[in-house]
Structures are given as C-alpha cells and as structure tokens.
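R.M. (postdoc): so does anyone remember the format we settled on? I'll just put the structure tokens first.
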C-alpha cells in the first residue's frame, strides 16, 4: 500500500530510489530493469545516523538526517532526485474494510473517509489517509475488500521535510513492513513451486527491534515486534571495553575487537537472539491455529553474524537462511559484489521501496 505521487508526473516508471530511514542510519537502493525485464541493482549505500537523530521511528533532528541523506546520495553516485520513503508500521493505522462493489471512485473515497472515522483516534484534518482496493470479497460479488491506511500528517511531513532539505522529492510514502514484504514476496516466488502452501517466518533484526512477519500464500498470517536488536551487542561492547557507542558500533562492523570478544560477548548475544526467535515461534503456535513453520528467513544487520543461522536452526529445528533481497537480480558494475554479500540482508526495506518504481 503506497501513496503514489509519481503517477502525477505522467511517466510510467520515473527513476526512483528507495530510502530507508531507521534508528541506526539511512539505506539507499536504486534499481533499473535489466535484461529480460529482470531487476538490476544499479547502486546501494548506507550512512549511519548520530544517536537520537531518529527515535522510535520519529525524526528528532531534521538537519542531521538530511545531512546523512546528502552523504549517502553522494557516496552512492546516484543522480536520481525522486525517492520512495516509508513510515514505521507503529505510526500507521491500517484496516481492511468491506464496501459495496458498485461505488464510483468519488463515492468510494467518501465511504472510506466515513469508515476511517471509526478507527482513527485523531481528528480527520490531522491525518493523511490513503486506501487501495484489494479485490472482490470471496463468495460475494456485491462487495470489495479495501485496505485503508492513515498516519498523523506531522509524521509524514517530517519525512518529506528531510528529503526536501537534502535536495530531493518524496514521490511515494509506504509502510516499512509492506516494503519489506514486497522484497520477500519476490524471494518466495523463487522458491520451489513458488513457495505455495509453505509457511515462511521472516525475522528482521534491527538495531533495537526485531520485526516478525509470518507468511502463507502471499498473506501475512501473523506479525509482531520484539524489543531485541543489534544495539544490545553494541552496549555490551561499550560496557566491556570502555568505548563510546559510536566507537563500539564502528569496531563491531570491522571486527576490530579483543580476542575474547567472540566468547565473552558474541556467543551470549547469539544465544539470546536464538531464544527470541524460538519464543516468537512458540507464541505464533499458541496464538494461531498453525502448528508449523517450514522456513525461517533472517534479515537485518545482525543476520550475517557468523553462527547465527546455525544456532537458530539448531534451537528451532527449522530450516534457516539469511536472505538477500537482491538474489536473482542483475548487478551493475557500480556495485562491489563482495561487500554486497555482507550488506544485503539489511536492505530489505530499501529494496522493497526501490521496487515501487515498477509496481
């Protein structure tokens, strides 16, 4: 579901970059269509954010965030000025509603706004509202299912402001979980039998939060988030080795830490991560009618920590892989493929946003 302003330009697929703004940093992806209409990764890049610039999905320092966007644009080499952005799921109210199929577009808009009043705890002039028709309701030709999404205008305006301060234009405003799902759906289509009737559990381990989506035949059957992420390991490094948070984060990324680091800090962190995944799956079993998961996908910056895949697979007894949203894509000569292997799992949202150019 995306508020798509690009169509106003009258060009079908204007160049568009995906920009993922998270607590820890900015991630950029630019895609084009390569041979046989296959996606091609043209450019990607990331830039860390100072602590406190983005807190719980809210932009607290527009100048710091727009400066980081300028840096990542320069670093990536892109000259594209249009961007697709996303709101955190916690900042967006979504609701599926049933409406009459015969309504004109104008009548549909009026009806959606009327329905939205029931679900949105704010005055309607304080929110941005969008909707899309999902399709006919099963067993009822008279009705259609509509997905509505609403967010506080000020939160959307903050994201638009940082983009404009960086000299760019926001063309699409999506929801982070929907963007990630667009990237994952593409990977599931590459599975045997296009993943039909298989239950996939996606764990995106971010800086502070792990987002869990469980999917079956293109539908999300369960989702939630847990307060666990890579910054816990960074905090352990700060405490153990007397470093600043920024130093700890930098040394964690390049592996420049004492020999005791693996045993003292990484192994306990991996145990904690595996425990979080196991608990989440048990919670899924106890709160839904489902009793199995066929495949676990790990994404996010922590997914590539050596040993995580093995310990999760061992604890859950479920096949586990680290995912790259760029799997099966053509790769431009602008991209360092060796670096990409390590970076790719944390670009799920940015990749899904970049795909909006063609959606």
């Amino acid at each position: 579901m995306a508020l798509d302003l690009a169509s106003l330009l009258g060009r079908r697929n204007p160049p568009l970059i995906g920009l993922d703004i998270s607590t820890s940093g900015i991630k950029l992806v630019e895609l084009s269509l390569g041979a046989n209409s296959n996606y091609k990764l043209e450019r990607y890049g990331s830039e860390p954010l100072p602590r406190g610039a983005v807190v719980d999905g809210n932009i607290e320092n527009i100048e710091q965030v727009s400066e980081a966007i300028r840096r990542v644009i320069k670093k990536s080499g892109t000259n594209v000025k249009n961007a697709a952005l996303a709101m955190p799921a916690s900042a967006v109210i979504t609701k599926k509603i049933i409406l009459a199929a015969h309504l004109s577009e104008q009548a549909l808009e009026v009806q959606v706004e009327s329905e939205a009043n029931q679900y949105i705890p704010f005055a309607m002039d304080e929110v941005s509202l969008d909707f899309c028709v999902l399709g006919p309701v099963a067993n009822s030709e008279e009705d259609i299912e509509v997905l509505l999404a609403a967010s506080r205008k000020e939160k959307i305006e903050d994201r638009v402001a940082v983009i404009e301060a960086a000299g760019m234009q926001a063309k699409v405003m999506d929801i982070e979980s929907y963007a990630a799902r667009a990237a994952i759906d593409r990977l599931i289509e590459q599975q045997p039998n296009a993943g039909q009737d298989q239950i996939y559990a996606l764990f995106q381990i971010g800086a502070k939060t792990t987002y869990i989506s469980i999917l079956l035949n293109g539908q999300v059957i369960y989702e939630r988030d847990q307060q666990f992420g890579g910054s816990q390991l960074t905090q352990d490094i700060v405490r153990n080795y007397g470093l600043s948070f920024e130093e700890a984060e930098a040394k964690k990324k390049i592996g420049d830490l004492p020999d005791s680091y693996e045993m003292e800090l990484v192994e306990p962190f991996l145990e904690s991560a595996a425990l979080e995944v196991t608990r989440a799956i048990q919670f899924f079993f106890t709160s839904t009618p489902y009793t199995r998961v066929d495949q676990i996908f790990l994404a996010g910056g922590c997914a590539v920590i050596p040993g995580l895949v093995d310990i999760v697979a061992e604890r859950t007894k479920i096949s586990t892989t680290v995912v790259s949203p760029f799997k099966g894509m053509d790769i431009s000569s602008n991209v360092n493929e060796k670096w990409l292997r390590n970076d790719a799992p944390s670009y799920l949202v940015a990749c899904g946003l970049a795909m909006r150019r063609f959606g």
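R.M.: ...and that's the designed sequence above, right after the tokens. Also worth knowing: Confidence is low (pLDDT under 50) at residues 1-11. The longest helix spans residues 261-287.
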